Predict the structure.
Amino acid sequence: TAPAAPDLAALSGLLRTALSHGAPGAMARIDDHRTSWDDHATVHKAVEGVADRGSGEAMDTADRFRIGSVTKTFSAVVLLQLAAEGRLDLDTSVDHYLPGLLPDDRITVRHLLSHRSGLYDYTNDLFERTVSGFEAVRTKVFTYRELVAKSLEHPLTHAPGAAYDYSNTNFVVAGLLIEKLTGHPVRTEYENRIIKPLKLADTVYVHPDTKIPGRHARGYLTPDDAKAALVDATDQTMSWAQSAGALISSTRDLNTFFSALLGGALLPTRQLDEMERWVPAGTGQAYGLGLRRRDLSCGVSVYGHTGTVQGYYSYAFTSKDGLRSLTAVANTSNNDAVYGTMLGTLESAFCGKLAK
Ligand SMILES: C[C@@H](NC(=O)[C@@H](C)NC(=O)CCCC[C@H](NC(=O)C[NH3+])C(=O)[O-])C(=O)O
């Protein structure tokens, strides 16, 4: 059965609601393919508000933005390609590849990619106080091992494999694994294995440079004291996240990436199936390997990832066959009302008027 047509009026209404909750701007792009992920797509775009509060420049779906944890799916694809090449085994101990790094040799590569390692998330400490925590790291450059060391100041949150417990530390270790197995920085692997093959012209990994190259939306961090002024968080190294969150992209490129991934263009079937072995991750949610599944009100499940970095909320999801993709962005963060409102764009895009 063909999916319900997107409800574009509802989609624009949600973007306007996000603005009413404090987002300076919001945007969404839907790519609707007919028979295959790479055929000519019908494109729907929606924009509201401003990309830049200073100049008043309007939000534009062509604007680059920081994608945060959507980066985790890129890192997972690289490691799963290495598994397909026989250079990595998902169920082997991380200790085999990175001896002595982690305190428990029961932690496997699969545990990292499914957030079941038990490794404490060091960002809980970094960002307990939102603005001062951000300003303390905005221009900092960390090594992967410094970030892992921050995590290991705490005991494991549970025995390896025992539970799903989202942690950025897992994908920092994933970055170390990529560099160890390939001898290249993650940037090279993203470029050679994903960005160049899919021609993702807007997708860049510029860590530790603080600037977003080319045309982009500025990002505004909402302080914990919501009455305080928004903080322009656009320029930062993203070194606190790196392979867990430092990519920059666009709505077009993320739609292409997830359509290609679920359309089978990036991984052999065997590895894509591994990516879709789900553990429960909250109501109507599941986590595979660097991939989220969300079960919508109309019975449709969608596959992708969300991202939260200072100044940007992003949501990038596609249908099971990769034929319809949505990327939605608001240029604020630390704002639960905006986060929840923007999540509704998945319903407008994939359930259309069938959304309950
Ligand atoms: C949730 C999301 N995860 C990510 O994108 C990763 C990279 N981001 C985080 O872990 C949140 C960092 C703090 C953001 C800050 N919050 C605070 O500082 C709170 N005190 C903010 O909202 O900008 C995902 O996987 O979907």
Observations:
- The mean pLDDT is 98.
